Fold:
Amino acid sequence: MDPQPHLPLSPRDFLILLVLVDGPLHGWGIVKAVEERVGEDVPIDPANLYRSMKRLQRDGIAVEAERPDGEAPAEQRRYFQLTELGRAVVAAEASRLARLTDVARGANLVPPDLTESAG
Amino acid sequence: MTGLAVLVLRLLLYLAPPAFRREFGAEIEGLFRRSIESDRGVAAVRRIARGWWGVVEVAVREWADPTSGRARFVGHHGGERGMHVKFSTVVAQAVRSVVRAPMVSAGVVGLLGLGIGATVTVLSVVDEVLIRALPYPESDRLVMVDEGAHSWPDYLDWRETVAAFDAVVAGSGFSFTLTGEVREHVEGARVSAGFYDLVGATAIIGRLPSDDEVEQGLQLAVVSHAAWERRWGGRPDLIGETLIINGEPVAVIGVLSPDFVPPTTIAGFADLYLPVGPSANLSRGDRSWTVLARLSPGATLADAREGLLGRARAFADMEPDLYLDERGELRRTFPPVSLREAIAGDARTPLLILLAGSGLLLAVAIGNASSLLLARGQARRREIAVRRALGAGSSIPAQLVVESLVLSAAGCALGLVGALGGIRLIQRFEPGDLPQVAELTIDPRVLGIAVLLTAVSGVVAGLVPALRSSRGKSGLLATANDRGSSRSTGPAIVVGEAMLASLLLVGSLTVVEGLRTLLDQDPGFSPELASVVTVDLGAAASEEERASSATLVQRRLSEWPGVTAVGAGVRVPFEVSGGSRCCWIGDLEHEGRELDLWVHPITTGYFTALNISLDAGREFTEDDGPMSTPVVVLNRSGAAELFPEGDAVGRRVVFADEVELEVVGVVGDVRHWGADQDIEPAFYVPFNPMGTWSSTLRFVVRGGDIPDLAAVRTEVAAIAPEAIVSNVGTMEGLMAESLARQWFYTLILTLFAVCALVLAMAGLGGTLLYDVRQRRRELGIRIALGQPARSIARGVLVRGAALVAMGATLGLGAYWPLRRFMDSLVPGMNALDPTALAAFLGVLLVAVLAASWGPARVVAGTDAAGALRADG
Structure:
C-alpha cells in the first residue's frame, strides 16, 4: 500500500487524520481534538468534515469503527478510525511537511522559538 | 436560536446530492447542533455561519465533483482545488458587492424570500392535493360514482352490467362498538369484495379476506397498522383472536401495511375494516354506499358516463317513483368523476386561485427586487463606469446577474423557512377541506421547483440592471446624462402592485370584519363554561336500558362538583355546521297553518344548561314522558309563524297529521347550525329512548370542572355499563370548529394581503428612490436656486400617494365583481362596509407615508453643492 498517490493532503484532511492516530473518534470528538491541538486556524465545519470522511473512506484511508461500549445507542454517531494505509499516509505527509519545514528553516524563515519547540 | 439554525441547515442540506444527504445528513445535523450548543455569543454565531456555509460549499463540490461516488485515487485533490478557487472567486466577488449595500441586499432577499416562500407553500399543498398520484395502483383509472352515496342493489347492478368498469367496489365509514374491558367506539369501514384489490392494500401480518369470504358474509376483521400498534400494542398474536364488535364475535385475520390510507371518500380514517356482508340493506331507497370503480383498459370516463346513464334509465323503468321526479325526468344520472377529483373536492378552485395569487406575488416580488437593484445600479454608476473604462465592460452584466443570483439564493433559504412556517399554519388552521395536508412536508420535487424559481428570479431580477449597464455609454462622463434615454417602468409597476395589494387588502379586511361580526353575533345560548359529553346509550341495548342509562348519566354528571345544570340533546348547537343540516324535520299544523320545522329531541335541563332564554311557559320536566300528554316547546321563530297573534303556550298543534301536542313553552332562537348560519324555525320534544331517534345523546354540562375522557368514561361505565362515552369537549370548542373555515380563509387572505402590501411598499419606495437618485443633479440645482428641500420632499410624497391612489382605485374596482366568489368561499362575508373601507384607507395612507419616507429623507438631506459635484 503506497501512500504516495494520496499526497499531498489538504490541511483539513491532515488534521483529521492526525487526531485519529490516537484511536477512533466520532465527529464531535474530531472537531474538539483538532480545536484543542491547533486552535481554530483550520476551522472544521460539520458538512466539510463528513465530506472529508466520505472521501477518506472511499480512498481506504479511514473506516467506520465499532461504537465503543457504554455509548448510548440512541445517539446517532459514527466513529471513524485509521486503516493501515491511513497511518502510512499521515506519516508520509508528516515527513513531507517536516522536509519542507527544514527547507524553510534553512532559508531562515522559521522563527527560532518555533524551531525549538518543533524540535 | 439553535432550533432555527438547525432548521436552516436542514434546508440547506437539500442542496446537496440526495445520496450524500441520506448518508451524512443526520450526522451533520447532530454535529452542527452539538457544536453550536458548545459555544455562546459571537463564537456560536461564527459556528452557525461556518456550518451553513460549509453545507453550501460541500453541496456545490459534491455536485461538481465528477468522481463523486466512484472510486478514484490519483489526481483527485488538484481538480478539487481548481474548482474551489473558481467557485469562491466568482461568488466572493458577488458577495462582497452584496455586503457593501446591506439595505438594498436585505430588501432584495426579503422580497424574493416572500415571493418564493408563498409560492412554495401553496405549491406544496397543490402538489399534495391536486397533482401527486393517489397511493393506489393504476390510480389514473380509478373513478367514483358521483351524486353522493348509493344503494346496495344499484352497486350490484353496476358491477354486473357496466362494461366500462373492470372492477366496482362499495364501502362506507362506520362507527363500531368494541366490547373489551371497556366498551368503546372504533371508527372503521365496511367494504365490499374487491376493495383491497382495487386500492392495492396488503397485509403485513395475517391475510386479507378473499372475495369469496366477503361474498359469503363471513365476519372477518382487518385492522389498520396504526390501530394495531395503538390499541393492541403491536401484538402479533392478535391474528386469530376474536373481538366482540357490535355484540357479535368477529375474528381478526390481518393487519394492513402501515402506508395504507383509505380513500377519504369512503372513510377519512379507519381502524377496523369489516366486510359489507349481510348488513347491506337491499332497499334501493337506502343509499349509504360510496362506489368506486376501475375503468377497463381503454375505456374512458365518457364510456363510463354512458354506461351509468343507461343503467339510470333502466332503474327508472323498474322503480319510477324512486328514480324519476314529478316531471318524469331522471333524478340521478350517476356521473362518474375521477377519484383524484372526488378527493380534492371543493378545494380545487380556491387552491388554484391561491396558486395563481402566489405566482403573481412572486412575479411582483421579482419586479420589485429588479427595481431595487436598478436603484442600486444608479448609485454604482461611477464604479461601473470606472470598471468599464478599465476594460471590464463585458464581464459587468454577468457580474450583476451573479450578484442577484447570490441574493436570490439567500432569498430562497429565507423563503423555505417561511414555507415551512406557512405549511404549519395551514395544517393548524385548515378547516377539514384538505384532509391530505396533515402529513404535508416540502417534497423534493417542490424543492426542485423552488430552486428553479430561485434561479429564474435571480436571473430575471438581475437582467434589467445588467442590460441597462451594458447599454450605457463608456467613459466617466456618460453617467449623468443618459437619463432621458431610459425611462423607468417603475411607476407602472407601482400602480399594478398597489392594485393587487388593494384588492387583497380589501378582501382580507372584509373577511376580518365579517368574522368579527359573526363572533359578535348572539348565538342564542352561552357557550362559556359549558362542556359537552357525548354518550352512546348502546345501539344493542334495550329501550329500558337506554332510558335508565340516560337518567343515570344525567344524574351523575349533575352531581359533579361545581356543576349548575345538565341537559342533553340528540343534537346540540354548532355540532353539525358549515351549512349541513341534520336530521329530522317535523311537520306541525295549527288551524290550517302548516309548517316544516327542525325537530330537536332533548332531555330536561337542556335550556338551562345552554342558557337559552325561556320566553314563555316552561321547560320540560321529568313528568313529560311517553306516558303523559305529548308536549312540545317551540322556538321564537317557529312560534311567530304558527301563532302570529302571540299566545302560543297552552295551545295545541298537530304533529305529522296525527299526534296532537300541547305547546308548553316558547324559547329564544338559537343558531343551531353554526354561527354563520341563519336562524330557522324549530321545535323541541322530550327525548324518548323508545322513539326512532339516534341512541347517542350529547350532555351539556354547565359549570364544574369536567375531567378528561378516560375519567368520565370510568365514571359512566360504573353506573351505566351499556353506555359508552365517546367524546368530551366544550361548547366553545364546537363554536370555534363551526367557524374554522372562516378563520382559515381570513388567515390566508390576510397573510397574502400583508405580503402584497409589503411588496407594494417596497416597490413604491424603490421606484421613488430610483427617481430621486436619478434626479439628484436636478434637485441639487433646485435647492441651490433656493427651493426649500422640504417642498421637494413633499413633492416626492405626493407623487407616491398619486401612484398608490391610482392603484387603489383600480383594485377597488376589481374587487367589486369578485364579491360573489368571496361569498361562495365564506358565506355572509362579502359586505364591504364603511369600517372595512375606512381601515383600508388608513392602512394605505400609512403604507404610502412609510414607503415614501426614505426617498423623501434622501431629498431633504441633499446637499446642493455635493449633488452638483458628485456627478458633474
